[in-house]
Write a structure and sequence with these properties.
The protein has about 1100 residues and is mainly beta. The chain folds into 2 domains: about 425 residues, 7 Propeller (Methylamine Dehydrogenase, Chain H); about 400 residues, YVTN repeat-like/Quinoprotein amine dehydrogenase (Methylamine Dehydrogenase, Chain H), CATH 2.130.10. A hairpin with a 5-residue loop joins β17 and β18. The two termini are about 35 Å apart.
């Protein structure tokens, strides 16, 4: 190994107290540095945005040390201009040697891939070609480095000779050794300009018949390549814009991630190790970006698992959002799912790697909204790298577009303008419309990684505020000062080089860099320092159409040395180094590699999943969104509910699972071996089951069953609630006359002896008033009077009759006076507390500090979390991984009224846009017109709609009498009881905010005497623009009694409950074991078993593919 010390001089900077700190980057325009290249485009009647929809996709930049002088050089791809090669002369000065080197081009160059294709130690350049020319004009180019003459590298174009002069419409090439034979093979990312709208719904083309199908070229080892796409299984279409190589499933074989534009789904080609690949993306990801552009894969949260970022086009400001997105097309989305497409949404995606699943695939949670990086507008090049050397990878995004061709006024009214006039006149008018379209010239955003799941926008502070039309981008240490610079290839604009000045700032972090002697082969480099680890997998083809530096860069923060590092090679050997000084460059090779040490054996886990029963829920409710277009979610798909109780008196808990409209519902009996048998199917009843409860309602000491009905949707009201009496042996019969007439569409029923007379009283929470959303339905407090329930709601507190859209309730003695108080929560309402004062229930929500907690609450549960003798509340909400950002001062709001007097309520959602500092309607123009046709004349253009704040969208007369509700808090929280006098609100950890929390179980899972939490979540039944909540895998958090929580991965806990989960119940089982039952909407029940302290389960062996 060779070590190269980099001397860094720390300079003292005197600053005034009010002076802004120096930015991390200094932006240099290319000509200042000797780089005159500019990717200039000239449009005409035959080449323009109408005839060539990818005209403004630009080209890439390639990094390589082409003349072997220890300084990275730059190659810029050109579309209508020649590509250019610039040698790095030191001190950020460059020399154009394009002509002397023989690397001029006369083709529409897209991707720039730099590799040593023939293993001679010299960097070569492979150029992908697109455009609207002939196949001959689309042939890709291969410049093979012939050596250095008088300091200048000389190249020969040998694409034909190598068999790589492919004439597909290529976007980018990525070189990797897919078959582990020691030489670089090539994945060719393709696209195609169809004669039809590429977002038109049609059957997927999966058998290689599409022109846009990618290709795989095998290196024959003799400086020739063979197209092996068909035999390797690379047959699925895609309008490819991004490609990254990564061993995503950790089996030592490099896999391929492809981001695809338009309707075509992204692809995740899992290397099978036998020369073939299989697309497994639907097993790995829950959803994808719709217009997948650039992509990068890196471990951004330092858990040694590679994460995926793919960028799209969602703008952060309201005006551009409304001028770019016409609205969700619910029918189109679900038809596409039915035709085999995977879910995709128009926004950036950040796929957090959660580790392997039992079937060997890897699980990902998409968290871009939570991370704060979902909305970066027209984005191209995402790059993860540690720009401030603090030990965490930050995120850069290349951004901008030359003409706003997606402007909806242009799409609807310009392209579809008057049909009158000659063809020439219409053509001229249309071209004038295109010429007059505004630019989308934007700064390239950069986000600082602070070591959490939430990234911080540092665009302005770090010196990247210059608006650009950036396409390709690369990071590289151009001045060998130990920090990463950025270089961008821009359309109609000079190159921008962002010089990183981390070495000259007041607080200087340390680093270490590793450079391979040869070409990288996706070896994995792990660096351990200061109790943390970092991972880089070596591949330079990242972002968009570009090649970054061929080095692994690690920031070390304050650490002045590296404890150890391990390089894991694809053949499962490794190279180890220990006690390395910081601020050095290590040149490494495979020469000293040793066999890997034996992997540790199976770990123990807290729970084990058991196959004890097969029960499949099938959702039957029609879509509410189709009838009320402005809904954000379905209103009648909350099941199946669960209830637990020992129905036959054997000391083991049994359970009930709710059913759909007109279906039998079931009671399952637990057997001593932990399995379950069907005890009884209750007769079909009208309506869905919204909630259920086992309790002794008639005082005969057995568990009876209350089933609360819910509306099945489609305008059908809920049925009468019902009680089934237990005969003592677990057989149930419908009771008559025990309940008053209760037909509210309910979410829950909870029991307590609130009047202290020795029998069970009830609260029934109303969830929905069918056809009147979001108006509050009726809720009930029912007093048990000798086995007959009486409605005493009004006498206890009239506010309990219509408290809101209740989703959950719990009886809890919050003031420690030995009387059960009532805590309720729901959608568009705060967490409300009603203190049991004997003859009355007094609302103390404000006294307890909860009046500004309105949210979209799903559940509330009570337990003493910190062992202080006071009951605390855990409340599950929507979480932070949502389009919406809400606060006490700027909440999300809903305004509801029958605005068009057609007999139905029109709910309108508004939100506060932090960039515009104004409240707007969240729905897109076409959606609002679908709901309220009369507003079409009010908002004749998309621009008019986009710039109109809500305060001016409706007249005061129209808003008179409207119901307005808000949601000020979206995070899931703990309410910590402060001596029975108030609650302190504490957000749950970030990992608990990645999706909805639908249910919570509190228990001492690991037997340490402290309360632990099990969370389940997700909701797939959402509108289709912002998309479903699907990031949760279920979560176990171990508590220490002091409100500190240790979230466990599913590999540590054994608990994995992903999908559209709804409810969880904890059952007593034989031998001190406990069984956790989890229900899914439109899915099966799942069961997890755990025992007492020390009674852990051995982890099952996980396969690799």
């Amino acid at each position: 190994m060779r070590f190269v010390w980099i001397g860094i001089i720390a300079t003292l900077t005197l600053t005034a107290c009010n002076r802004k700190p120096n930015p991390l980057f200094v932006a240099h325009r290319g000509p200042e540095l000797g780089i005159s290249f500019q990717n200039t485009l000239v449009t005409n009647d035959s080449v323009n945005a109408l005839t060539f929809e990818y005209i403004y996709n630009g080209s890439g930049v390639g990094v390589g040390d082409f003349n072997k002088d220890g300084l990275y050089d730059l190659y810029f791809g050109g579309n209508q201009v020649s590509s250019r090669l610039y040698l790095n002369k030191g001190n950020l000065r460059f020399e154009d040697v394009t002509e002397q080197s023989g690397t001029t081009t006369n083709r529409w160059v897209t991707g720039v891939a730099v590799t040593d294709i023939n293993g001679d130690g010299l960097d070569d350049i492979y150029l992908c070609v697109g455009g609207i020319g002939t196949p001959e004009a689309r042939k890709n180019l291969l410049f093979v480095n012939q050596g250095v003459r008088d300091g200048i590298p000389v190249f020969r174009e040998l694409g034909e000779a190598y068999g790589l002069a492919d004439d597909s419409y290529s976007t980018m090439a990525a070189f990797f050794d897919y078959d582990k034979d020691g030489d670089p093979d090539m994945y060719l990312l393709n696209n195609w300009l169809e004669k039809f709208n590429r977002n038109n719904l049609r059957p997927r083309r999966l058998n290689g018949e599409a022109e846009s199908t990618d290709k795989l070229y095998r290196n024959n080892g003799d400086n020739t390549f063979t197209d092996v796409s068909a035999e390797a299984g690379i047959l699925i279409e895609g309008y490819g814009l991004g490609v990254v190589i990564c061993d995503i499933n950790n089996d030592s074989w490099p896999d391929v991630y492809v981001s695809n534009d338009f309707l075509s789904n992204d692809l995740l080609w899992i290397n099978q190790g036998d020369g073939t690949f299989e697309n497994r993306i639907s097993d790995y990801l829950k959803h994808q970006a719709h217009n997948g552009m650039g992509v990068d894969i890196a471990d951004f949260n330092n858990d040694n698992l590679p994460d995926i970022v793919a960028v799209d086009m969602l703008p952060p400001d309201h005006k551009r959002q409304k001028l770019m997105t016409p609205g969700q097309n619910y029918d189109f989305f679900h038809m596409a799912i039915g035709m085999g497409y995977e879910p995709q949404y128009m926004r950036n995606t950040l796929q957090l790697n959660r580790g392997p699943s039992p079937d060997g695939s890897y699980l990902f949670s998409e968290i871009a909204f939570l991370a704060g990086i979902a909305r970066t507008d027209w984005s191209w090049a995402p790059l993860f790298a540690d720009f401030d050397n603090d030990g965490y990878k930050d995120l850069f995004v290349g951004n901008g577009y030359r003409k706003d061709v997606t402007n909806l006024d242009f799409v609807f009214f310009g392209m579809g303008a008057s049909p009158f006039g000659t063809p020439e006149t219409r053509s001229k008018r249309l071209h004038e419309e295109v010429a007059n379209l505004p630019d989308v010239k934007l700064p390239n955003p950069i986000f600082k990684n602070n070591g959490t799941l939430i990234l911080e926008d540092k665009t302005e502070e770090w010196g990247l505020g210059l608006p650009t039309f950036t396409n390709g981008a690369a990071y590289v240490d151009l001045d060998n000062d130990g920090d990463l610079d950025l270089v961008t290839n821009n359309i109609d604009q000079e190159v921008i080089l962002y010089e990183n000045t981390a070495d000259r700032l007041g607080k200087r972090n340390h680093f270490i860099r590793l450079i391979p002697e040869g070409i990288p082969i996706n070896e994995k480099i792990f660096v351990y320092t200061g109790g943390t680890s970092q991972l880089v997998e070596m591949t330079p083809f990242r972002g968009f159409q570009s090649t970054v530096e061929r080095a692994a860069h690690f920031g070390l923060g304050d650490n002045t040395s590296v404890d150890s590092l391990i390089i894991v090679w694809p053949d499962s050997t490794c190279t180890r180094m220990i006690s390395l000084p910081a601020d050095t460059v290590v040149v490494y090779s495979k020469k000293a590699a040793q066999p890997m040490r034996k992997k540790p054996g199976a770990r123990s886990v807290l729970m084990e999943r058991k196959e004890v029963l097969v029960h499949q829920h099938k959702e039957k409710s029609p879509s509410d969104i189709l009838s009320t277009r402005t809904l954000m979610h379905e209103l009648s798909r909350f099941g199946p509910c669960l209830a637990r109780g020992d129905v036959n008196g054997d000391g083991l808990d049994d359970f009930y699972v709710g059913g759909e409209n007109g279906e039998e519902t079931t009671v399952y009996i637990q057997l001593p071996d932990g399995t379950f048998s069907l005890k009884q199917s209750l007769p079909p009843m009208p309506g869905d089951d919204g909630g259920a409860l086992f309790a002794d309602f008639d005082g005969d000491h057995d568990a009876d069953l209350y089933v609360a009905s819910a509306s099945p949707g489609g305008g059908v009201p809920a049925a009468q609630h019902r009680i089934y009496l237990n005969d003592g042996g677990g057989k149930f019969s419908l009771a008559n006359g025990m309940l008053p007439d209760i037909r509210t569409s309910a979410s829950c029923v909870v029991a307590s002896d609130f009047d202290g007379d020795g029998d069970v009283d009830l609260f029934v929470g109303g969830r929905l008033m069918e056809g009147k959303y979001p108006h509050a339905p009726r809720s009930y407090v029912l007093r048990n009077e000798a086995g007959k329930f009486v409605d005493v709601t009004e006498s206890l507190n009239p506010a309990l009759a219509y408290p809101g859209l209740v989703s959950s309730a719990v009886w809890a003695d919050v003031d420690n006076d030995q009387n059960p108080d009532l805590v309720i929560a729901g959608e568009w309402m705060p967490i409300r507390v009603f203190r049991n004062a004997g003859e009355r229930f007094e609302e103390v929500t404000d006294d307890y500090g909860l009046s500004r907690t309105s949210g979209w609450w799903n559940c509330v549960r009570a337990t003493d979390l910190n062992g202080d003798g006071h009951v605390d509340i855990i409340a599950g909400n929507t979480g932070g991984n949502s389009f919406f950002r809400s606060s006490a001062d700027n909440p999300v709001q809903i305004v509801a009224k029958d605005f068009d007097n057609n007999g139905s309520i029109d709910p309108i959602i508004t939100y506060y846009n932090e960039i515009d500092r104004e409240r707007f309607i969240v729905h897109n123009r076409l959606v609002l017109i679908d709901q309220l046709p009369k507003v079409k004349g009010r908002f004749e253009t998309f621009t008019q709609y986009a710039v109109t704040p809500f305060s001016k969208a409706f007249t005061p007369e129209e808003l008179e009498g409207a119901l307005t509700l808000d949601a000020r808090k979206l995070e899931s929280v703990m309410l910590i009881n402060e001596a029975g006098k108030s609650f302190r609100i504490v957000d749950l950890p970030d990992i608990a905010q990645i999706s909805t929390v639908n249910d919570i179980v509190a228990d001492d899972i690991n037997g340490d005497g402290h309360a632990d939490l099990i969370l389940i979540g997700n909701n797939y039944d959402q509108e289709t623009l912002f998309g479903r909540f699907d990031a949760s895998l279920g979560l176990v958090m171990l508590g220490d009694g002091a409100l500190n929580w240790t979230p466990l991965s599913h590999l540590e806990s054994g608990f994995l409950a992903d999908g559209n989960v709804r409810y969880a119940e904890l059952l007593r089982s034989a031998g001190g074991r406990k069984t956790l039952v989890v229900s899914r909407n439109n899915g099966p029940l799942e069961f997890f078993v755990y025992g007492e302290k020390g009674n852990a389960f051995a982890e099952r062996t996980v396969g690799k593919r």
